[in-house]
Amino acid sequence: MSSHDENGIPFTTPRQSATFTADVNSDIRRAAATGIYDIRGGGAKRKVPNFDDLLFMGASISRYPLEGYREKCETSVTIGGLHASNPIELDIPITIAGMSFGALSGPAKEALGRGASAAGTSTTTGDGGMTPEERGHSTKLVYQYLPSRYGMNPDDIRKADAIEIVVGQGAKPGGGGMLLGQKISDRVAEMRNLPKGIDQRSACRHPDWTGPDDLEIKILELREITGWRVPIYVKVAGARPYYDVTLAVKAGADAVVLDGMQGGTAATQDVFIEHVGQPTLAIIRPAVQALQDLGMHRKVQLILSGGIRSGADVAKAMALGADAVAIGSAALIALGDNDPKWESEYNKIGSTAGAYDDWHEGKDPAGITTQDPELMKRFDPIEGGRRLRNYLKVMTLEAQTIARACGKNHMHNLEPEDLVALTMEAAAMAQVPLSGTNWWPGKSGSNF
Amino acid sequence: MQTFDLEAQGLRELNSTLHAQVKETNQTSWEVINPKGSHAIAVGLDAPIEVNIKGSTGYYCGGMNKQATINVLGSAGPGTAENMMSGKIVIDGDASQYAGATGHGGLLVIKGNASSRCGISMKGINIVVHGNIGHMSAFMAQSGNLVVCGDAGDALGDSCYEARLFVRGSVKSLGADCEEKEMRPEHLEILKELLAEADSDAKPEEFKRYGSARNLYNFDVDNAAAY
Ligand SMILES: Cc1cc2nc3c(=O)[nH]c(=O)nc-3n(C[C@H](O)[C@H](O)[C@H](O)COP(=O)(O)O)c2cc1C
What we know:
The complex is a heterodimer.
Chain A: H1 22-34, E1 39-40, E2 54-56, E3 77-79, E4 88-90, E5 94-96, H2 106-119, E6 123-124, H3 132-137, E7 141-145, H4 154-159, E8 162-166, E9 178-179, H5 186-192, E10 200-201, H6 211-225, E11 232-237, H7 241-250, E12 255-259, E13 268-269, H8 270-275, H9 280-293, E14 301-305, H10 311-319, E15 324-327, H11 329-335, H12 343-348, H13 373-376, H14 381-405, E16 419-421, H15 424-430
Parallel strand pairs in A: 5-15, 6-7, 7-8, 8-11, 11-12, 12-14, 14-15
Antiparallel strand pairs in A: 1-13, 2-16, 3-4, 9-10
Helix pairs in contact in A: 2-14, 7-9, 9-15, 10-14, 11-14
Chain B: E1 2-5, H1 6-9, H2 11-19, E2 29-33, E3 50-54, E4 69-72, E5 88-91, E6 107-110, E7 123-129, E8 143-148, E9 164-167, E10 178-181, H3 185-197, E11 208-212
Parallel strand pairs in B: 1-2, 2-3, 3-4, 4-5, 5-6, 6-7, 7-8, 8-9
Antiparallel strand pairs in B: 9-11, 10-11
Bound molecules: flavin mononucleotide (FMN).
Residues 41, 43, 97-100, 103-104, 126-127, 144, 166, 169-170, 235, 259, 262-266, 305-308, 327-330, 359, 369 of chain A line the site of flavin mononucleotide (FMN).
């Protein structure tokens, strides 16, 4: 590039805009070319304050640790003991979040069931109903009750170990689902009572109830249908956690699933994923506060999801008051989603390993988020199940390592007092002291 | 005939007694007295029994019904027959919002009027309303037949899929992507059967048929205003 013009006058250095970045410009060009908003899977990719901004302090003179491998650190959790005669007993506090058959292939659902069962935890159905693959391989299966009610039927409800009424998802609070025509195979179409090959819009609101008073009656109906045996969860997006949790508990939920904005989805508008909802870190304390104000903390379980990746994340979520966590994206990665071994194939469809999120197109090189029989063959559900089990075990061991170092003989004994924050934002959201201080923004008694 | 006093014996007892009836039960005829608008009456039934409810019901009466025949000798609250799979539910009076929502099968008959969102997201159920229906009925209706002997309110069949909508009277307005369709002999045949089963003396020829124009089935920027 020349630095002067023909008269010797220097060019100014070309400067890229911080507002019109390469990403932004490619979005504009894509919109101009297609006339449709960008749809994709996954969760928010922007950076938001998260669990990496928190640290555990560990034991010291004033707190003594437990001996690794020798002194027990319990990880079990019971969900739904409040109203259900058969609550769910999990060996580990990490569950598999609801992911729809349709978004995922049958073998992928099977692998989730295999891995979760081997690790002593539950899986969850999704928008698209219950498949025999998943029911058959999940010792504990949570059946989602969604606005679309695709495949909803009383026989499957009676086969479920718990019911999860989905009000919202962290990736798209207030939004419905989207399954584009390419993925509507004969089997998916039949389970959803819809023609093959059309775009399916899942409703954003339940067809037969609105608001907390109706929800209470809906919960009553589901309990009557299932004889008050199984727990009823309510899943809400991280929108207004204090009020949503309060209303869910008042409506009679046994457990609340709370999903932050980093939470994955099978497909929705990118603008939704990136601009609606609150970060997972920001929603825990208001939710726990709501439970405490109602005298229901630890009686109604709080299951947190949205960007949980490691045992450290699990321990931090639990220290802030969650009873358990749920994972979606991380489970898919454990199965082999976005694996660099498929890099050349990702390149062919304009992506790269780690960034691939066009799951709705059904062309997943890893054969997980697809209904294409050829691509599905690449995925072995037995091997996938084994990998997921390993990953769940590692997360549990990591979380136990931290809990022991903090002197806790049960994961549930972790507490906010064990944590400090690295940033002001994280300190304010988690309501734990900024590292090196005894203060956080908004702490009562401080005059910030 | 077994008589069950809902007020005295309670909802849990009622539903668990009805759930205990299996296919071969000889207690095929039940009468429920004092329903007094209670919610979730006779939900999740799965046996070929007949339940007569003497009075009006609250939310979700007959929800997820399979096989059973349920007669409400009064009016029904919101979501009656929601997600019904099979069997028959007859409401003598009026039905509130979302009657027959997401139903997969069976027949719901409403002798009076039905409120808004009747047949919302229906997935195979047949619904016959002797009177009128409210706005947004058959919203996102996927399959099955909705027969209205009276008039339909605003936005009938908005974003509907393959459900067939038959209206004898006026339609205040059609929803997005819903249009009037040709009435073919097979449709008259469906109507004839449903009207007979629902005890209506309306004539099939008096109805018009509505359904999806199928323009919104796959996204097209030129239809963006309809979304
Ligand atoms: C492929 C995929 C499909 C999903 N399908 C559903 C669904 O059908 N119903 C639902 O409530 N949530 C669904 N979710 C959201 C998850 O239940 C969960 O909230 C989210 O994945 C948690 O965040 P994480 O992915 O960061 O772990 C889906 C997520 C993914 C990644």
